[in-house]
Amino acid sequence: MAIKKSWLDKLNENKEPKIKRIDIDFADIPAGSKMFIATPKLIDQYINEIGVGKRIDLKTLRKDLAIEHNADYTCPVTTGIFLRIVAEANYEKLQQGKHLEEITPFWRVIEPNSALAKKLTFGQDFLLEQIEKESAN
To answer: Which of 80, 83, 76, 90 is nearest to 126 (CA)?
Structure first.
């Protein structure tokens, strides 16, 4: 039986980003568009560039990645999945003894009341705490 991958394993998988031309309308993306499919590592890198006390919504993240990679849109489904991987993997790092300053500040992107936040294994309180700490500075 296969060993279940940790969130860190999923974050560090060697995946390549892709651009696909889509044939039919998909989510908020019209048919014929070039859709960028990121990787967990790319999402992690993007979030690491967000300054302390700043927050960026998912639409902005998707738009920025699409522009950076010469696509019309970034896939909303995989972006959500990869954002969860980034959050869970970095929370794993905390559990393993890393300091808060040494992990990716995923709370700068995830809305505490979002469907994604409700799925996180560590709950929404951690997000709220970090957002509050940063907005107090």
So the answer is: 90
pTM of the predicted model over 0.85: yes
29: CATH: 1.10.10
State the Cα–Cα distance between residues 88 and 107, nearest whole angstrom: 11
> In the predicted model, is pLDDT for residue 136 greater than 80?
no
Domain contains 2: no
Question: Mean per-residue pLDDT for 92-115?
Answer: 96
Q: Where are the beta strands (DSSP E) in the chain?
A: 18-21, 34-37, 73-74
Beta-sheet pairing, 18-21 with 34-37? antiparallel
| pLDDT of 120 | 96
- At 119, the amino acid letter reads K
